[in-house]
Amino acid sequence: MSRDPSLNGMIYFESVARNGRVARAAEELNVSPSAVSQQIKLLEELLGISLFRREKRQLSLTAEGEQLYLATTSAFGILHNARQLISRHRDSHQLIIRVSPSFAIRWLSPKLADFIQKHPEWDLRVDASPDPSNFEREVVDFDIRYGHSSLAGLHCEEVVSDYILPICSPAYRDELRRTCNSPLEMLQKMRLVDSIKAVIQWDNWLARHRITRNTQDTALRFDRSSMAIQQAINGVGVVLESTTLTYDELTSGTLVPLVPEMGAIRFPAYRIVCPSRHHSRKLVQVFINWILQQAEAHESHISRLLNETNTPIYDDPEVFSYLSATKP
C-alpha cells in the first residue's frame, strides 16, 4: 500500500529546494545536515523519483522536484495564512458576523452604538449579505439570518420575533378611506408592494383573510425589504411588512397600519446560525447575550406600539406549521 509523504519530509524538501543547499536548510531548520539528507532520501524513495540534480555542492530541482516544490509552497502558504488568521482571531477581540441586508441596515446598525460603547476594545466587522456563510471556507463567527431554511449540522438560535401587517403612508391610507366604503374594499383596491423574499406573502395573507382581488391588479415587487418599505413611505402602495424593519417609521407616523383591527402576525423570524464550535466562544456568547437583550427591549416597544394603534397580535397556525415543516 502506498504511503503519503510525512509532513517533516515535505518541510525539509521545501527548505532545501528554496535554499539550494542541504547545509543552509539544516541551519534554517536547526537540525544536522545528515538529518536533512536522510529525509530527502526517504522522500525520493517513497515517491520513486529523483527530486534534485546534484552538481558539485549545489542542488537544482528536477522537473518532478519543481512540480512538488510549487505544490508545497502553495500548501505552506495557505497554512501560514490560516495560522495568522487563527492567531489574530484568538488574541484579539475580533468578531466577524454576516447579516441579512435589510435587518443589518434597519435594525442592527442603529443599535450597535450601544454595543460599541460597552465594548470599545472590540474589533467588529459586519457584512450585510443575502448569502449565508460557508463556515468551512470563510472566516465568519456567525450569521444572523431571516427565515427557516434547512441548515443541517449548524447551531440555530432564535433571537428576534417579527410582527407582520399591511403598512402604508398616512396619505395613501387616507386616500383609500375617501374612495372606499369599508376596510374590505380598501384591501381589494389597494396597490400591493411585495417583498418577494418575505416568509409571509400577500397571496398567503389575503387567502387567510378570505379577501379576493382582481387577478389583473398591478403589484410592485422587490427582493429587498428596505426597497419595498421605501415605496410604501413614498405613498405608492401598501407593503405587507415587518414592524421590526419599520419600527422607526411606525413610531414617527411616517408609516401606519392600514387596517389595525385585522391584527399583526407574530412569528420567530431572525436567528443566530453557526457551527457549534463557534457558539461556544466567549466573544460569540457576549454578542448573542447583548442581541437577546436588545430583542427583548425591542419586543416590548413593539407590543406597546401595536397596543397604542389598537392592533391585536396573534400567532397564525399556518405560519407555525410552515416554519415547523422547514426547520432542520
Automatic annotation (TrEMBL):
Keywords: DNA-binding, Transcription, Transcription regulation
Gene3D superfamilies registered for this protein in UniProt: Periplasmic binding protein-like II (3.40.190.10), Winged helix-like DNA-binding domain superfamily/Winged helix DNA-binding domain (1.10.10.10)
InterPro entries noted in UniProt: LysR-type_TF_proteobact-type (IPR058163), LysR_HTH_N (IPR000847), LysR_subst-bd (IPR005119), WH-like_DNA-bd_sf (IPR036388), WH_DNA-bd_sf (IPR036390)
Domain HTH lysR-type residues, every copy: 5-62
Keyword Cell membrane (UniProt): no
GO molecular function list: DNA binding; DNA-binding transcription factor activity
Domain of life: Bacteria
PANTHER family (alphabetical): HTH-TYPE TRANSCRIPTIONAL ACTIVATOR TTDR-RELATED, HTH-TYPE TRANSCRIPTIONAL REGULATOR
Protein family (similarity comment): Belongs to the LysR transcriptional regulatory family.
Protein name (database record): LysR family transcriptional regulator, glycine cleavage system transcriptional activator
Organism: Marinobacterium lutimaris
